Amino acid sequence: MTIAAAAVEDTDLREALLRGISETGVPTIETDWVPPSKQSQIGATFTKIAKPTLAMHVRAFELVSLAEIP
């Protein structure tokens, strides 16, 4: 998941995301971890990390499925 966090260019948002991952085990950003001027960007941050993460999981599933073919 830290690979997905690397896609977040803003330092404050990336640090908040990494804090959320380390504290909860899942991508989380609490609004009080981010300056008020950047809180409106939290949703876009999750969209940015969700697309590559989902693609990575789909690809991993495809590889596992192919490995199971006799």
Keywords:
mainly alpha, single chain, globular, about 70 residues, about 0% strand
Explained architecture:
The chain is an all-alpha fold and 70 residues long. It has one domain. It has 3 helices and no strands. The model has no long low-confidence stretch (mean pLDDT 80).
> Which radius of gyration do the C-alpha atoms yield?
15 Å
Quick one: how many beta strands? 0
Helical amount among residues, as a percent range?
Answer: 55-70%
* Proportion in β-strands: under 5%
The number of distinct structural domains comes to 1
* Structural class category: mainly alpha
Task: Indicate the mean pLDDT.
Answer: 80
Note the overall shape: globular
Largest sheet: none
Instruction: Please count the helical segments.
Output: 3
Regarding quaternary structure, what we see is: single chain
